[in-house]
Design a protein that fits this description.
By secondary structure, the chain is mainly α. It has 9 helices and no strands.
Length: about 200
């Protein structure tokens, strides 16, 4: 089924998740059983959910490795270092993995429309690297209310996803540079840690 997932990922990225028929995915996968996708995934949302979970598990593991290094280096009070550790993995998969470009495009679509992922989209086991990063940032910023940190971190992660999707669409893989990574991390650091009116956010 990994072959069908990879084909679906490419087609969804190139044409839009809702614009690709399941029968086209089956055809391009060379499957004789036209009900194969329905049997294994149940629906389009189930297929997208399995696809994202497969990729997120890989990225999540890398994210934990970077966060482990932050702890080992004694950088738990460094918001920028934590954000960099949380953000670098998605840049690396775009640069190093053949599926990285497609994944980001699919993730951006499903971020705007969570229904595309179905009810299993929020499995915490594939997001706990981001949760860990947010908790570390919250501890590093005792002067900023936790609710404000959580909200700002969510805005930052969305910004990263949509920024990458836009750059990939306009400039391709070559646009996903270390400079872009650092610009986004600097932006996130200032946005999450700054602001005198944090207590007024809701």
């Amino acid at each position: 089924m990994n072959l069908l997932l990879a084909i679906a990922e490419r087609l969804f990225a190139e044409n839009g998740v809702e614009a690709v028929s399941l029968s086209r995915i089956v055809d391009e996968g060379g499957q004789r059983n036209r009900s194969a996708l329905h049997y294994h995934f149940g629906s389009r949302a189930g297929l997208v959910s399995q696809l994202l979970h497969m990729r997120l598990r890989h990225i999540n593991a890398i994210r934990h490795q970077y966060l482990d290094r932050i702890e080992q280096k004694g950088q738990l009070g460094d918001v920028r270092a934590i954000l960099l550790a949380a953000t670098r993995p998605i840049f690396e998969i775009v640069q190093k993995e053949a599926w990285g470009v497609y994944y980001v495009q699919v993730l951006a679509q499903t971020t705007l429309s969570p229904a595309l992922r179905g009810s299993d989209a929020t499995d915490p086991s594939v997001w706990d690297g981001l949760s860990r990063a947010c908790e570390l940032i919250d501890k590093a910023l005792p002067g900023v209310p936790t609710a404000a940190v959580n909200r700002r971190f969510a805005l930052y992660t969305d910004t990263v996803i949509f920024s990458l999707a836009r750059v990939l669409r306009e400039a391709g893989k070559e646009g996903v540079t270390t400079t872009l990574l650092n610009q986004l991390v600097d932006f996130g650091t200032a946005g999450i840690a700054g602001g005198a009116n944090a207590s007024a956010e809701h």
